[in-house]
Fold this protein.
Amino acid sequence: MNICLFCKIISGEIPAKKLYEDDEMLAFYDIKPMAPVHFLVVPKKHINNLLELESSDSALIGRLFYKAQELAKELGCEEKGGRFIINAKKDGGQTIDHLHIHFLGGRALRPKLASWFMG
Ligand code: 5GP
Ligand code: ZN
């Protein structure tokens, strides 16, 4: 039994507001948005975090980022931009141990990553 929350969202066991899905990734809105546009892009393959990437996953990461920027543009953030974030493990503030890219946009974010992420 897989107890990973994002694996449960991928399998449909837990609902999410989906933005995009194909055979290798899923994009959905963050349940607790920290900006007007805040979505996550996750691989369907369970990878704990960016520090546990296998070399065979490197192209997949590129495709996740490519989709993230496409979605950011579709959601109106092309001109003003936003922030693409991957938190890794405890010190990085990762709370869900399934690799995910955050995109935040739709408002000006604080320039210092740390101060923004601490709220
Ligand atoms: P992390 O802190 O691991 O980088 O980010 C995890 C993110 O997942 C958080 O921004 C949190 O709000 C989001 N999240 C946690 N549980 C759920 C959920 O059940 N559904 C959705 N859509 N997002 C979730
Ligand atoms: Zn998982």
The first strand starts at residue 18 and ends at 21. The mean pLDDT is 93. The chain has three helices and five strands. Helices lie at 5-11, 58-74, 113-117.
